[in-house]
Amino acid sequence: MRKKMRRVIVMVLGFALTGAVLTGCGESRQPGQETQQGIPVSIPEETQQETVTEASEAETVKEPIEASEDTAQTAEKPVQTAEKYEDNFAVDSEAAKAFAEKIKDAAARKDLEALAELTAFPVYVGLPGVDVVETKEDFLKLGAEAVFTDDLLESVEKTDLDHFEPCMAGFSVSDGRITSINFGVADGVLAINGINY
Predict the structure, then answer these.
(1) pLDDT value at residue 166
(2) I need a surface site. Which of 65, 125, 131, 169 has the fewest CB within 10 A?
(3) What pTM does this model have?
(4) SS3 of 167, please?
């Protein structure tokens, strides 16, 4: 009988020790959580709430990032500081209008570099023999004269920015014709996603 009892005790202690090792309870113990012989001490609910809140705050704290040459170059580019969008329907009309103004300004100046900064690559460019442009460098190689056709410039210039309506594809900077510069949400921010001719 004593042997049987001893086996049961050894088994229970073995399970308790295994559980303690697996959960790592020794490292995550909070003050006032000391246990005696594996018997947990109950923690007041207020302390549990504080611990959860502190853990949540700790997870959201981000360490400052040292500026490198790469980040210094990125900082020179116009960066959208607006909120991140889930989709095109989450974009408010003022944000859409402001982004379309940037497109109109770049087109009016025939500034291909400025247009490229507003673009998410790869991007559709409907010029004959072009289709999809993979990188900013390839986009700039197309040249301003090829990209800014008279038809595109006129369509963009006559765009009514006060009546932008989002759709699944995004927004169209156009006076209603097919020739247009389209933009929408890409990785949470607004970016040009296609140029139609």
Answers:
(1) 78
(2) 65
(3) 0.59
(4) strand
